Amino acid sequence: MSVTVAVAGASGYAGGEVLRLLLGHPDVEIGALTGGSNAGETLGVLQPHLGPLADRVLEPTTPDTLAGHDVVVLGLPHGQSGPLAAQLGDQTVVIDCGADYRLEDPRLWEQFYGGDHAGSWPYGLPELPGQRERLRGATRIAVPGCYPTVSTLATVPAVAAGLVEPDVVVVAASGTSGAGKAAKPHLLGSEVMGNASAYGVGGVHRHTPEIIQNLSRVVGGDVSVSFTPTLVPMSRGILATCSAPLRGGVSAADARAAYEKAYADEPFVRVLPEGQWPQTQSVLGSNAVHVQVTVDEAARRLVAVGVVDNLAKGTGGAAVQCLNLALGLDETTGLTTVGLAP
Amino acid sequence: MSVTVAVAGASGYAGGEVLRLLLGHPDVEIGALTGGSNAGETLGVLQPHLGPLADRVLEPTTPDTLAGHDVVVLGLPHGQSGPLAAQLGDQTVVIDCGADYRLEDPRLWEQFYGGDHAGSWPYGLPELPGQRERLRGATRIAVPGCYPTVSTLATVPAVAAGLVEPDVVVVAASGTSGAGKAAKPHLLGSEVMGNASAYGVGGVHRHTPEIIQNLSRVVGGDVSVSFTPTLVPMSRGILATCSAPLRGGVSAADARAAYEKAYADEPFVRVLPEGQWPQTQSVLGSNAVHVQVTVDEAARRLVAVGVVDNLAKGTGGAAVQCLNLALGLDETTGLTTVGLAP
Amino acid sequence: MSVTVAVAGASGYAGGEVLRLLLGHPDVEIGALTGGSNAGETLGVLQPHLGPLADRVLEPTTPDTLAGHDVVVLGLPHGQSGPLAAQLGDQTVVIDCGADYRLEDPRLWEQFYGGDHAGSWPYGLPELPGQRERLRGATRIAVPGCYPTVSTLATVPAVAAGLVEPDVVVVAASGTSGAGKAAKPHLLGSEVMGNASAYGVGGVHRHTPEIIQNLSRVVGGDVSVSFTPTLVPMSRGILATCSAPLRGGVSAADARAAYEKAYADEPFVRVLPEGQWPQTQSVLGSNAVHVQVTVDEAARRLVAVGVVDNLAKGTGGAAVQCLNLALGLDETTGLTTVGLAP
Amino acid sequence: MSVTVAVAGASGYAGGEVLRLLLGHPDVEIGALTGGSNAGETLGVLQPHLGPLADRVLEPTTPDTLAGHDVVVLGLPHGQSGPLAAQLGDQTVVIDCGADYRLEDPRLWEQFYGGDHAGSWPYGLPELPGQRERLRGATRIAVPGCYPTVSTLATVPAVAAGLVEPDVVVVAASGTSGAGKAAKPHLLGSEVMGNASAYGVGGVHRHTPEIIQNLSRVVGGDVSVSFTPTLVPMSRGILATCSAPLRGGVSAADARAAYEKAYADEPFVRVLPEGQWPQTQSVLGSNAVHVQVTVDEAARRLVAVGVVDNLAKGTGGAAVQCLNLALGLDETTGLTTVGLAP
């Protein structure tokens, strides 16, 4: 079987990562590649690491250029996927790496993104309890944000098992590729190397409501999340440190048991051996999520740490994982849990 | 006036930073430089950035080599300052960059460091309420740890003003020089570049009781601190993200007002303009601390962020600041608030 | 078909990279993993990125533990492969990632490495003219050094076509993983981040005679090579800038034509489009080599630049490529030309 | 004495570095700060590391705003200094950090920069033989380019002493700040971290004729320079590897002697002890230049390596050094040879 896949936004980081992975996917044929202002340019110049596609020329991002493929993956700025997706056929599998269809509550969309809410699609985080079944055979899937992926997976077992109060603090350190490829002065290499900075502090980052939505679904009630993203000097990777007040007499062993149980059958999530803490390098370029959990006895908080490659499992890898589920392929096809280290 | 200063541990990062700053200090003459296993080696090879001292040869770290100076600065592994300091004259100003004399509670020393408690010296954080006066003319000063410096300064105004519950969560991203110059595999460049990792999770890092001690002194009662250090790919700098549950109707404006008031007269602490968040690059090589604070309305938490150069204000700069206070010099002599950026 | 492969030195960077690639190789079953001082430890701790092998325990590096495999890959410090290989059966394919069998001239071995010369094996650089045939079915292969791989491939077309005098200057910038995983102070992250340095200047680096050997073979006569390695702040990758005096009226077009012709059929070497210069990120984790060439009209020199991932095509990828050739598999099995960027 | 200094282009890297250094200069009062598109913005936002100037607002870059100062330092894109300088009074000391007045030959200006040649000013490299005297009391000074500074200083003693043929190969690795603060995609942190790349290959980089001009002046005849710049993942610093064919029986000792003699009295240039090779970290933020030289006996080439902080001695430090000379101050006022390491 060979499935044709078009990628819209092929010159960006999300699109590039999807293509990197699709080039290693045995069941996929790469179809149209489209760009915005880059239409007409050669991929070899825009994405020089994608050697086998070097001679491909970007077409404009229109319903016409994307038509006729089994799957269309969208790697577009938020607000652009909605209008486009509406013009793609119902039989086409559309996988949106952007934010347009992630949030269910239109008021939250308007508060955090502004403009009209496009709607919500099945949320592409198969590891969320009960979610995998919603993705099998789906024709529309919203790929989660990078911060929500790792923050959610590092927290869900604790909140789902009721080990903690639903009052979570997340501080996440991210590489710069999460900010995209648009040239902004504060993202220049000279500015980010040797530098760590905080941004979007105080609950204003757009990924905050998405984390809350995920945890609320699991808890079945209100959840408070204080989320602070920080930028650190690396291209890829997120390290999320998550904590919440412990309930009753929960011990470190209880916590570990809950995490190990929650992820026992997950192909991409690994609870590290006791005492070993996650590092982003271990999951670089892979679809793996590494998590670890312990209990701070003095502060009476559960502390969990998760890592993910923001472009791989955090974006492009998740898109391929969702593509596999949508098409009924083995969920791990074309994906690896082996990171590129050192 | 010219003061003679000896530096023990001149081959390490703390000692090197003290020397870098002393070379620009107008009232200081650099005396004996000592090392452990490096004794007999030339400083130009060990610290090639200290050009004017390149021909200096390290002497062994003994009371004899350190005797006869007005000031002795100790940059030694913990446990070594205690026995040595006991053999230095009472008139000599001794400034310890290590941990030996930071903690007041012997049980906490034993729990976190092991071995006998050397005692406690005036704590070299002049910005702590009431602390500056204890340091003027002191002959023994314990320089704070790097994490405690920035975590404390980013949190004190909020807890001192009673804006938050004394239940603080700190997640700090540090450059690697905080781990010292001893060659360990996990600190190799190949391991730390492109990598972010957590360590000492769950309240076990040795700086935890020091932060608690500082905040408890200010609050005048028990304080809970959940502290998680993380390592990010840069040589210098710490970014500390601190949060705590808001009390009553505290607003972002209240928070800012408290911070601005607390640091209005501090020469080294700057509360950034509203909306501007700290970045470590801005304080690189300087004695400045940048802080910012806001309120997460939805999560009902105050969130404050502070940055410091772990080797400068976090170690060597603090040592020089303390030296100035001990000797009755202007506190800012030989120090700058201008960072090396980009 | 499934081939069993043992890896000696599985805790090091070369061994780890071989394993990373073998985990994605369809025809290979990973057998014994051995270590030196790490024997008895768990691979999940030593190489946390190799998730699927996390529970493997390292055995001691002995002929017994390595016996009974179709292939043995050696990732050992130089001087250790020789004695070990002598005790492995003739039918076993032995692929040495170390230096022991690279140099043909015993005097050069003694001059640059010291100790007894183990001998020389077929040199595992299939892209060297005529070399591929020597590797098909071979049972002993010496994997080239990382610097020689990229320096040779960036220079061979020019010297082979007689476009330049055989008087080559190579200055190469390398990531730190080329220096291995042994903890040395000058390789600490704090020392290498924000830092570029030269070392082994003046023709004393051990890879110098290997580059000369390669170019001399192609030229069929004496070649002079001035080689200067430099260390730059990244984990992986080498950028080699190579130049030599132009002969006669050689133009940039002549140079490009020679390079394009030389590599037209090579699966892993890509001559970039005119005007596009190589960057290491494009080949990260891949077996690709990117090269570009031009002519400096004023200085009358040909200048060629090549990039390679020192651990992939520069070590582990080359080992797998050689394994494929030795076993009669398609040369590209389990290898990619797609880099991990950004 | 207090001299007023205006800085045009205060929002850029050159202007920011000049200001960083002037803030520590005892004889200077900082006057007008001007910007282009940033006029009207606050310096605290644009250059958050310059704490003491945080409240300064940028004025437009016009002759009027710059008038009335003793010194005007220009940190402008090339082509802008010429027209502006023509409108500044003859008594005003004007120090141009840009390229407009560096080249003496109008044809080279047109070839490498295009547009009209503004002319040439005394070249601000006091370490060039005979040049210091031309700068004392000068009212117009052209600060050298960063690459030419280090390439020239690493090469001059060899060519001046006739130890080598005037046929020099320079390969230089630079941090990204040399490319300025304008946001370009290829300079994004995600693109430059973990990446080394070559650019301007084949003699086309604009600093090439400047290096040739410097060496030709010293040799008193034609010099050939093959110059290749490369970009490596750090904010600051250049490492230049320079080599040339040895003449006659020149030994490494001869070479060292020539370098030590050439720089014996230079306050900022240090020839490292034999066997110690330069690293950029050692000169970070300082005005120091570290050089080392040896001889490759087999390749019969002299190899010299130099390092400089491209923004400090490579731009802003040189500007202050020239300011000191122009005003008759001690040449080292406000400058240091101590680098910020690690």
Automatic annotation (TrEMBL), chains A, B, C, D:
Domain Semialdehyde dehydrogenase NAD-binding: start-end pairs: 4-136
Major subcellular location class: cytoplasm
Superkingdom of origin organism: Bacteria
Catalytic activities: N-acetyl-L-glutamate 5-semialdehyde + phosphate + NADP(+) = N-acetyl-L-glutamyl 5-phosphate + NADPH + H(+)
UniProt entry keywords in alphabetical sequence: Amino-acid biosynthesis, Arginine biosynthesis, Cytoplasm, NADP, Oxidoreductase
EC top class named in words: oxidoreductase
UniProt keyword Amino-acid biosynthesis, yes or no: yes
GO biological process, one term: L-arginine biosynthetic process
Any GO CC annotation of this UniProt entry: cytoplasm
Pathway annotation from the record: Amino-acid biosynthesis; L-arginine biosynthesis; N(2)-acetyl-L-ornithine from L-glutamate: step 3/4
Active site: residue positions: C146
Transport is among the record's keywords: no
CDD domains, per the entry: AGPR_1_actinobacAGPR_like (cd24148), AGPR_1_C (cd23934)
Annotated SMART domains: Semialdhyde_dh
Example of a GO MF term: NAD binding
Compartments reported by the entry: Cytoplasm
Gene3D superfamilies reported in the protein's UniProt record: Dihydrodipicolinate Reductase, domain 2, NAD(P)-binding Rossmann-like Domain
EC number, as in UniProt: 1.2.1.38
Function: Catalyzes the NADPH-dependent reduction of N-acetyl-5-glutamyl phosphate to yield N-acetyl-L-glutamate 5-semialdehyde.
Similarity section: Belongs to the NAGSA dehydrogenase family. Type 1 subfamily.
NCBIfam families: argC
Protein name: N-acetyl-gamma-glutamyl-phosphate reductase
